[in-house]
Amino acid sequence: MKNERDEQFHQFVVSRRAALVRTATLLTAGDAHLAEDLVQSTLTKLYVAWPSFQRADNPDGYVRRTLVNALTDERRRWWRRSERSMAEVPDRAAAQHIDGDVSDGLRAALRELPPRMRAALVFRYFYDLDVADTADALGCSEGTVKSQTARALDRLRAVLGTNPSLALL
């Protein structure tokens, strides 16, 4: 039999899981498998800290911060530094295709950014959070958000500018 805490958590998961997966997919530059892992880690951490989460002044910020921390923890794993997820294992190294989908190009460009820069862009531009809320999610100062965002945009422009089919972004 479920207790009240379990029922509250269950309702939270049912109502928020899809949005968490979307956010995690953006934070991982389209890596759906890693996104699912991050959401599972985030939900586990939230369940353990459920009383703290319920007392939080900004529950959405609490969830965002937990998700970013899960991404940071995941990127620190030694085996993640040398492996990349792939839907299909190629027989040999694939050549770069210029005629690919624009969203694939954007995902590839985002993948080249460090996780914190990518997170700053995702929260600022995909979720339209202000600098203060983004700083809260990332656990840093507002000045850091501004500099990380500016650097990330410069790097994206440089990467996307080298491919004429992606210059429209």
From TrEMBL:
Query: Cross-referenced Gene3D superfamilies, in alphabetical order?
Result: 1.10.1740.10, Winged helix-like DNA-binding domain superfamily/Winged helix DNA-binding domain
Transmembrane stretches in the record are: none
A biological-process GO annotation: DNA-templated transcription initiation
RNA polymerase sigma factor 70 region 4 type domain boundaries: 106-156
The RNA polymerase sigma-70 region domain is annotated at 19-80
- A Pfam family assignment: Sigma70_r2
Q: Which domain of life is it from?
A: Bacteria
An example molecular function term from Gene Ontology annotations: sigma factor activity
Which of UniProt's keywords are assigned here?
Answer: DNA-binding, Sigma factor, Transcription, Transcription regulation
Family affiliation: Belongs to the sigma-70 factor family. ECF subfamily.
The protein in question is named RNA polymerase sigma-70 factor (Sigma-E family)
Q: What organism does the record attribute this protein to?
A: Actinoplanes xinjiangensis
